[in-house]
């Protein structure tokens, strides 16, 4: 398994492929949530989804 630092992980999402994956993942995941619903972030990753959910 390849291990990435948090900075490398976040940097990948700024690449063209990473940006596409990020958009598609968020569209799929956020379609499952209700507006103003409650979400528990268990602290996995660098907060990529948490920042969007907070908006």
Brief rundown of the structure:
By secondary structure, the chain is mainly alpha-helical. Helix content is 53%, strand content 0%.
Describe the overall structure.
This protein is an all-alpha fold and 55 residues long. The chain has one domain (6-54). It is built from 3 helices and no strands. It has helices spanning 6-12, 16-30, 48-54. The longest helix is centred in the middle third of the chain and has 15 residues, at 16-30. The N and C termini lie far apart (33 Å). The mean pLDDT is 84.
Helical content, roughly?
40-55%
Which stretches are low in confidence, meaning pLDDT under 50 for 5 or more residues running?
A: none
Shape descriptor reads: globular
Task: Please work out how many helical segments DSSP would assign.
Answer: 3
Major sheet attributes: none
Question: How many structural domains can be distinguished in the coordinates?
Answer: 1
Structural class: mainly alpha
Order of helices and strands: HHH
Whole-Å distance between the termini? 33 Å
Keywords:
55 residues, globular
Topology (SSEs and partners):
Layout: H1 6-12, H2 16-30, H3 48-54
